[in-house]
Each structure stands twice: as structure tokens, then as C-alpha cells.
Task: structure prediction
Amino acid sequence: MSALTELYKEIADCRDCELVKHRTKVVPGEGPEDAELLFVGEAPGWHEDQQGRPFVGPAGQFLDQLLALIGQKREQVYIANVIKCRPPQNRDPLPREIEACRTWLDRQIEIIRPKVIVTLGRYSLARYFPNEGISKVHGKARKVGDFVCYPMYHPAAALHQNSLRQIIEADMLQIPRVLDQLAKGAEVPAESQQLSLF
Result:
């Protein structure tokens, strides 16, 4: 049994916060254990809670389109969320819920060791860039600890604000270049430095 499959069993048994009372299914994440790209969203929505899979609603359909722009399929990347259970009425995740789920995402990242972690939206952004706003840092790869992080707007943002669609698509189109530069051994600025490389 794979390390991720073992981890999914543990996540399914999680009782670390009150969201366990509201969920239909836990949504651990999905994708190959050796994925180069790890996309981290915020929290499961209604569709995800029903199916136990991340990004399967309208935002997920847009994410699939974005992946196609860079020649990737959903099966080639890993997709997860900051929290693994749907908050009631799709409300924002609470700090204690994010903290309770932190270990699960940490362990997924340890197993997968992605080349790039793509943060989608403000909650995954806050995990790696706690004092930054998405409008300032989106589309700029930076090294945070051992990983290269690449912040993007959440795909759902384009569904609510059509003007963001082109920005999100443009940011997505930069990801192959980031991977290419990393493959060539290029240094990525640390989180405290402004990006000049990509």
C-alpha cells in the first residue's frame, strides 16, 4: 500500500475539529505520489464533499482548463486543500480548523516532494506568505523553506470576477517556465526577496 493511501485512511478517521460533524466525505486530495506540481486550494465545497474529491465543481472545471493550457492533465498533478472537510455553508475555514489540518498537508508534501507548490487563493497563500496580499505576489515564484511556491488566485475568483480570468491564465502559463528554470538549476529567490529570475 502506498504512503499516500495509508495517509488517506488516517485523514478519514480524523476527529481533530468540529468539521467532522458536518462532512459527508473527507476530501484528502488526489494525484500521483511523484507529482512535480502540487496545487493547494482552500477547502472542499459542496461538490467535493459529496464526491470526496478536490476541485470537482465549477472551479475545478476551470482548473482542468488551466491545466490543459500548459499541457497537463489532472492525473499528472497533485491537488489538495488546506483543510480536508467542508465548512458548513461553504463559510471560510477558521484558524483552529486550518491548524488542526496542518499536519495532513505537511505529510502529503513530505511524501510527494513536489518541484513547485502552487497556492490557490488566500488561505493557502497565507500558509506560505503570511503577510502578503495575493494581488502583489501572484505569478511570482519564491523559495519558502525547502520548496518553491508559486501563488495564484483561486480559480473560483474568475467565476465571480471575470476580469481575473486572463490574469489567472497568464500566471498558469508561466508554470512550465518555472519548472524549466528549476530543471536547469536556477536559483529561486527566498521569500524575503523580490523575484527577478522568472
